[in-house]
Amino acid sequence: MNPVYEAFAEVMQPGSDLSIGEWFNQYVKVVDSPHGANYDINQTPWFKEIAEAVADNSNDEIVVVAPLGSGKTAFFEALIHWIVAEEPGFTLVTMQTEQDAKDLWDTRLSKAMRLCQPINNLWPSDRNSIKKGTVIFPHMSLLMGGANLSHLQSKSCRWVIGDEVWLWKPGMMDEARGRTHDRWNARLLFTGQAGEEGTDWHKAFIDSSQGHFSWQCEECERFNKWEHANIRYEKIKDEEDQYDWEAIKASVYMECPDCEAKYKDTSETRRRLSNNSKYISDNKKALKGIKGFTYSDYSVWWKPWSKLVLRWIVANDELKRGYIEPIKKLKQKRLAEFWKDDFGDVKTKLIAADYAKTNYMNGELWDDERFRFITVDVQRDHYWIVGRAWKADGSSRILFEGKVLTEESIRDYQLRYKVQDKLCFLDAQFDTGRVYDYCVKYGWTALHGSGQDGFIHTKKRGARRIRVKKFFSKYELAQAPGGGTAPYIFWSNEKVKDALVILRSGQGMAWEVPQDASEDYVHQIDSEVKREVISKSTGQVHKRYVKIKKDNHLWDCEAMQVAAAMMVGALRSPEEEVK
Q: What is the 3-state secondary structure (H, E, C) of 431-488?
């Protein structure tokens, strides 16, 4: 036979009669999987309907919002196997970076595909056809790369697959969509954890059918979303008022919101409910062919509900102490919920606590008080000042606040209320030299608000020293104009004000305001909100705190109070390791 005909016959084998899920199970091998060497879609029932949607030529775009550690990468790999063997066409696989794509190919995908029997005869004989994330098969090409314009502006594609799309830059999803050139059988698959509301990734899911993986109650037969709202548990503490984690774990169960049937947190129960789940659409007006799927960690049967409950408790305790990131990451990475960054838009009415500033006019201590700070916003010919007492648990109350005219008045407040010199903080953004001279004269500390999200510190962890990021900088010294050195610290304007908004809105620890708070204080405490702004350097949209009232001085004083509380550990500042 003519060699050309032989090669053609070798690659042009008839397609399989198996469904896509059955094909996965029969032919796909998985490298380094905790669930065995053979791919089994029954281990991940949340992917069954997704696989069928991907294989359906009547669909154009499939959006999958998934939690971490739920088998997404293995499904991703199995799909590429199936495309090469069953539904070939130029395939563009896009990861967050070029290195991510290279790592996936080198460590997992290439090894697994070599074990796939239907692909054995399809590999190119020319070694040069396999290099740098590109495989030129005799019947199709597979191109892997990062989410950038050079990769996404490649040739016309039948298959465009994007992973961790929540990390993609604005506009990259549209670039990916443009690669199919409106082919009748083209398919777009976008996957990743949940990101933030208002992004391209969020809009893609909102515009889809919004299918939520839902479990069926075995008593009333109602389908319910796999969500935290249906989980029940007791927050049990021991004699020392510490969480009894084992007792809390034992108390966890899931409850049907309709008939109140209860389900124990066992592997058998979780797997049975997950196997009997299905996707139910929240968007009946979605365009035909735009399919969306999402499922939470609660549906991943090998993960005990109790583990997620413990994370939930810890994250909410951190939130009360002003640290947003744990609950944000939990919702995005575990619950597959998009994050709405609306902490900066406080609508809660300011409610005074049952005390007055006059109760502390002679410097009296608050019960269980641990720290006391003065914070000062410096103006040209006057100063705004707040004195606040803090407990070790992050709760606090105002002792005094208002406007003073001289540096001597600040000193008088400091001495009368018995505040340590170094715990009197002055904003040094305006007239920095004058503030530095005051700090040398009185032993006060200068503060600089910064647009940075964090500052590098080093700390010892075990036998090694590591670099961590906090919301405030290290203690530094600067030369003052009048001589001597002044101590100063930078603090993250956005992150600290996020924490302040949590306290101000009543979602955090007790943050008390007196019944005789001044009119200035009541007016200024809600003088900033978070709004979308466009970065002049990158052109990207970010949320930043902006003034909505002329005077925001006492708001700034309260922000500096939060920064000071983070410095001493009364409020939580992250210690995220930086590589």
A: CHHHHHHHHHHHCCEEEEEECCCCEEEEEEECCEEEEEEECECCCEEEECCCCCEEEE
